[in-house]
Amino acid sequence: MEQEFDGGDLELGDVLEDAGSYIRYAVTYRSGDLTVSGIMNVPEGDGPHPVLVLAHGYIDPEIYTTGRGLAREQDYLAREGYAVLHTDYRNHAQSDDDPENEVRLRLGYTEDVVNAVLAIRDSSLPFLDGDRVGLLGRSMGGGVTLNALVVQPGLVDAAVVYASVSSDAVDNFDRWTRGNPEAAELTEEIIDAYGPPEDAPGFWQDVSPVTFFDQVTEPVLMHHGTADDTCPIEWAHDTRDALADAGADVTLEVYEGEQHAFEPQWQASIETTAEFFDRHLG
User: Fold this and answer.
1) pTM of the predicted model, to two decimals?
2) Arithmetic mean of pLDDT, 21-28
3) Which of 15, 34, 163, 194 is the most buried (most CB within 10 A)?
4) DSSP character for 80?
């Protein structure tokens, strides 16, 4: 929250696909000292088009390929007339590496999303409308989106989160890191650096977006399924309640029986998402 952000140098690379109603490009942009890769779907027509930055959920960086994640959302929203920038994040695909990112609780991903928006706003590409920008994040990317909203109030015009991780960093640490045998070394590094949550509550509060929800200025739409066994529905209720208590404009759409991946009711959710962005970015 205290650091300066200076995202820029958004550049189109190769055409990856002509989908008829949009062209899919490889892109890069600057995030601090790093170059981050991604894709951009640019709708047909001169524009300028409103822009959505997409923040994907966890995919092992060892198998991740550029633009992977949120494929349905990338396609649908581009066909609805939005230019869609899907960031790979640092340490993914062709992006530069940040060896400290895991110990820093992946806060580098938040930097990359903030800088993606700033790169759009700074861009001279005539088909992008840098004055109309929204965020969409899923699962881990939902947490990244919540982080971005509290780190840079007013950064975007609206935000959508799907099946998000908790807005309390301790929940996430306990669910996927502490107690996970495969993350024993990382757990030790994090605790050595900051202390465990029970001994260093101030630190863990300060890396939890829920602590700063009074900073949020954008309307937020949340989607979550009751059968989500990755990110429990209780987390969504807690986040919605905390945002509302802080005075934010927040709506939680609950999908009975829907799981983390959103399959049967995804179409209904994406139509609601498009309508939400149309209202706030139109």
Assistant:
1) 0.98
2) 98
3) 163
4) T
Residue range 156-173, pLDDT digits in tens: 999 999 999 999 999 999
Sheet holding 220-225, edge to edge: 8-18, 22-31, 34-43, 83-87, 49-55, 128-138, 158-162, 220-225, 250-255
Contact 270, 136 (CB under 8 A): no
For residue 84, name the pLDDT band (cuts at 50, 70, 90). very high
Please say whether the beta carbons of 235 and 167 come within 8 A: yes
Q: What is the pLDDT of residues 223-258, one digit of tens each?
A: 999 999 999 999 999 999 999 999 999 999 999 999
Strands 22-31 and 8-18 come out as antiparallel
Please give the backbone phi and psi of residue 112, each rounded to the nearest 5 degrees, phi first. -70, -35
Joined together, the tokens standing for residue 125 give 């590409």
The CA–CA distances, whole Å, from 104 to 13, 38, 179, 189 equal 30, 22, 18, 10
Q: Are 205 and 167 in contact (CB under 8 A)?
A: no
- Locate the domains of the chain by residue range: 8-168+208-281
Alpha carbons 159 and 209: distance in angstroms, whole number:
14
Average pLDDT score over the chain: 97
Asked if the 8-168+208-281 domain carries CATH number 3.40.50.1820, the reply is: yes
User: Is the distance from CB of 168 to CB of 210 less than 8 angstroms?
Assistant: yes
Q: What is the pLDDT of residue 282?
A: 82
Instruction: Report whether pLDDT(130) > 90.
Output: yes
| Closest listed residue to residue 24, CA positions, set 69, 67, 73 | 67
Please name the residues in contact with 36: beta carbons below 8 A apart, sequence gap of 6 or more. Answer: 28, 29, 30, 87, 88, 89, 90, 95, 96, 112, 115, 116
> Looking up tokens 């109603």, which residue turns up?
21
